[in-house]
Amino acid sequence: MKKELDILIIEDVIQDAEFIEAELREAGLRFRTRRICTREAFLAELQGPRPDIILSDFSLPSFDALAALQLLRKHNHDIPFILVTGTRSEEVAVECIHEGADDYILKASLKRLPTSIKNALQKKAMERASLEAEAALRRSEEQYRLIAENTLDLISLVDVDGCFLYASPSHRTSLGYQPEEMPGTQFIELVHPDDRPALAQAWEQSLQHRESRHAEIRVRHEDGSYRTFESIGNWIFDEHDLPQRAVIISRDITRRKESEETLRRLPTLIREAQEAERRRVARELHDSVIQILSSVKFRLQAIEEKLASSDEATWRDTLKAKAHLEKAIGEVRRISRNLRPSELDDLGLAPALRSLCSEFGERTGVTIDLTINRLPQTIPSDIELNLYRIFQEALGNIEKHSRATKVSLRLARQASKLCAAIADNGCGFDPLAPRTRRSKPGGMGLVDMRERAALLGGHCQLRSTPGSGTEITVEMPLKTIENSKHKTGEKG
């Protein structure tokens, strides 16, 4: 990043601000900072030159990040805002994001902060560019009312048989056709065959109701490719109230459609990036941290043997240290599996679910019953991953909130879809009751499960009543991938 960033830090602990600056310097960022810790100082900053980005602790003695975000919105300041704070609950992070924060970084793990700053700045730049583009488009639309021959939109005049009477010069630049050669050509011949019925219906409705009608159509370029246009047409009637010709104005929305498709794919791309990062962290935990801890454990064992006969008190302390170390190794392994279970990549969905349920039962003491029936011969990897994450999230919620003693999990194929059900005999809750910060059930966990199902064209439903347990059902349509190696949910 070549530009020197102007960073405003809202922090009352000088040492924490220095840690942030040190991390940014280590990442090679060029910047200057100003530190404040009161509401008055923040308001004063809003009156002066705007910083490029704001890094804020959540809670200060007389001020907090939510208040800062509300002041930013009140003053219409579109400044990237990143929460850099100590350990906070998920609700705090979500609330700050809803109020306009761009990211949430823990002080204990500042390594991601430089990347987060770059992403936030890039996001804001794209948003501003988009707003500027939309403003420019609106100005252009005003000018189009005054300009006909020089407009970028396609202006067409067709007779009652649909033949061109006139084509604006923009047909040359947009579609490659010579406007003077188009009269006598059927307009509908340039339209994609699949879009012709919708266009014919729009024309008929426009004629019947004597008002303009919209249609989204693909029009053939001179080179044979198709571009997408948003067209509006209206009929012109003579003095005898008979239709004489139709005016059709078409705007090229090919790029917009491509952008919409990109936006539709954005949640999938984000989750793919998250899974890639989880896989990397899980691998580093397994290949690095666990190896180091295991090495320390072996050294403790050697020390233990030497102290067994010479210093009983120190020997006992060594035994306790080794026990804590073994517990830490187990916890790191569990975290690594939760981040990215190796069974899912190596063996497939069914073995990964069995391992997940086995580990959950051993850790919590909850009786768990897993039934897997009639899985298809091929399961696409995206369905495998998202189903696994849904099961994982559901079990996590059960462990945290349900106080259940029994859990039932079912996964089976029904016709052209996969159906899953997770039920427990826990305390249950009222999904329609107003939620507070502490009411986790039905919160972000369920949102995540529903989003994962929706991304694949499925749906997720929750049924629960206080005292009667909770049941989550998921349905996902199956897709066929011929080269999939996931045999009956297991990899061979």
Task: Summarize the model shown.
The chain is α/β, with parallel strands linked by helices and 492 residues long.
Give the terminus-to-terminus CA distance: 47 Å
The total domain count is 4
Largest sheet: 5 strands, parallel
The strands making up the biggest β-sheet line up spatially as 2-1-3-6-7
Overall spatial form:
extended
Strand proportion, as a percent range, falls in: 15-25%
Helical residue percent band: 40-55%
Structural class: alpha/beta
**The CATH C-level class name of the largest domain:** Alpha Beta
Question: What features would you describe in this structure?
Answer:
Helix content is 47%, strand content 23%. The protein is of the alpha/beta class and 492 residues long. The chain has four domains: 5-140, Rossmann fold; 154-252, 2-Layer Sandwich (Beta-Lactamase); 262-340; 343-492, Histidine kinase-like ATPase, C-terminal domain (Heat Shock Protein 90). The two termini are 47 Å apart.
What are the main properties of this structure?
492 residues, alpha/beta, Rossmann fold, Beta-Lactamase, 4 domains, five-stranded parallel β-sheet, five-stranded antiparallel β-sheet, 19 strands
What is the secondary structure topology, with strand pairs?
Blueprint: E1 5-10, H1 14-26, E2 31-36, H2 39-47, E3 53-56, E4 59-60, E5 63-64, H3 65-74, E6 81-85, H4 90-98, E7 103-106, H5 113-144, E8 154-159, E9 164-167, H6 170-175, H7 196-209, E10 213-220, E11 226-237, E12 243-252, H8 254-307, H9 312-339, H10 342-346, H11 349-364, E13 367-373, H12 381-402, E14 406-414, E15 417-424, H13 444-455, E16 459-464, E17 470-477, E18 486-487, E19 490-491
Parallel strand pairs: 1-2, 1-3, 3-6, 6-7, 13-14
Antiparallel strand pairs: 4-5, 8-9, 8-12, 10-11, 11-12, 14-15, 15-17, 16-17, 18-19
Helix pairs in contact: 2-3, 8-9, 11-12, 12-13
